[in-house]
Amino acid sequence: MYKIIFSDFDGTLTYKESLSPVFFDLLSFLERRNIPLVIVTGRSLSWGHFLLTHFPYLKDIIVEGGGAIVSRRGSFITEECLVSQSDVLRLAEFSKELTKAFPQTKLSADSFGRKTDRAIELHDLQEGVLFEHIEEFMQNHQINFSTSNVHLNFWCGEVSKYLAVEHYLKRQLPVADECVFFGDSLNDQAMFKSFKNSVGVSNISTILDRLVYKPTTILQGEENIGPFGVLNYLKQKFP
Ligand SMILES: [Mg+2]
User: Fold this and answer.
1) Do residues 96 and 134 share a domain?
2) What's the whole-model pTM score?
3) pLDDT tens digits, residue range 55-87?
4) How much distance in Å is there from the Cα of 201 to the middle of ligand 1?
């Protein structure tokens, strides 16, 4: 039995870009077995608050690609920022420069609720010349970036889903080998690289050839898309 289930959110716990009944089935399945679920997502700090507020079973959410952890402690919600204050300020400055240099791009609507990273909607930025110019601009400014299913995220400093999970596990009893991670996208690579037990839900097939590090288990077939794959895998493992 895994001690903690870590999972990406978009495309892994959502289906067709929304929460579906299977997400609730998964929460009930874990609750009955008393296995904590920690979502590890590129979504914003404000999204972490939303998830904790609406899903009482969730106690900790790692957000912004590993930049911060939002936790429920009794009736309080606390935030732990894993990025230095100077990097937070540098990112704010860079974001202004970016939108000045590329006025045709705009920051994602949820950038308002972000602290340690910012995002550009991939919908607004089809891969092509503009995408490449923006990436080059970020590289020239020593800004790190990664793509999720929905965003091009960028940040200052050393941040990854894995570093945040490693930090999180230091304050927990279980060791990483007793946990599992589910994911589906390029921004899950740090986890696939360093985590012993990792599972890609079947929709990972669309980006599989772009992954340098792949999950140890890759699910196949329509029936294992996103949260269906997560639940099927856990049910098979823990009938
Ligand atoms: Mg994803």
Assistant:
1) yes
2) 0.85
3) 999 999 999 999 999 999 888 999 999 999 999
4) 10
Instruction: Report CA(90)–ligand 1 centroid distance (Å).
Output: 27
Centroid of ligand 1 to alpha carbon of 120 (angstroms): 15
What is the average pLDDT across 110-128? 82
- CATH number, residue 109: 3.90.1070.10
Token duo for residue 199 = 């599972």
Q: What is the DSSP letter of 137?
A: H
Q: How far, in Å, is the centroid of ligand 1 from the Cα of 150? A: 8
Sign of CA dihedral 95, 96, 100, 101: negative
Phi and psi, residue 181, nearest 5°? -125, 135
Among 132, 155, 178, identify where a domain stops.
155
Q: 210 CA distance to ligand 1 centroid (A)? A: 14
Confidence (pLDDT) at 126: 65
Spatial CB neighbours of 154, under 8 Å, sequence gap ≥ 6: 91, 94, 117, 118, 119, 120, 138, 143, 144, 145
Q: How far is the CA of 148 from the centre of ligand 1 (A)?
A: 6
- Cα of 169 vs centre of ligand 1, distance in Å, is 21
